[in-house]
Amino acid sequence: MAGVNICSPIQYLTIIALLTDRKVFMNATVPLLMYFGFGGLFRFSWSGYMLQAQINHLIMTITAIYVVFVTIKSGREGTRKLALGLGVGVLMLMVLMFYVYPQVYFNNPQFLQLLVEMGWE
Q1: What is the mean pLDDT of the chain?
Q2: pTM of the model
Q3: Angle between helices 76-95 and 50-73 (to 10 degrees)
């Protein structure tokens, strides 16, 4: 089974959100960036080939913080867009956690072996 990397699609989605400068879209990526970026800092090894992944996780975390600050800085309207975007992002994260992940785990038993090889024990 080829490697599964959810971080790359999230990074592409975030780049599109930043380029379009749509605050709700940008903030919808924040829960994903924090869960997979900030969370990845603690799940994976800090040695060998995983160091590149950890640099990406740091960038994802910094990007999430940047998006929140830029949105809050835009005033009262920004706060509303922040709340709406975070709500959409949490919903997307829940769909991933409760629907997509079980499909990956139960239909591909080799996936767990891949996680062990990557240092996630």
Answers
A1: 88
A2: 0.80
A3: 140
Q: Which tokens hold the place of 12? A: 């592409």
Tokens, residue 71 = 């949105």
Percent of the chain with pLDDT over 90: 61
Provide mean pLDDT across the span 32-39.
Answer: 94
Tell me the average pLDDT across 49-63.
94
Q: How far apart are the first and last CA of the chain?
A: 19
What's the per-residue H, E or C state across the chain? Answer: CCCCCCHHHHHHHHHHHHHHCCHHHHHHCHHHHHHHHHHHHHHCCCCCCHHHHHHHHHHHHHHHHHHHHHHHHCCHHHHHHHHHHHHHHHHHHHHHHHHHHHHHHHHCCHHHHHHHHCCCC
More reliable by pLDDT, 80 or 97: 80
Q: What does each C-alpha distance from 59 to 37, 40, 41, 63 come to in angstroms? A: 8, 11, 11, 6
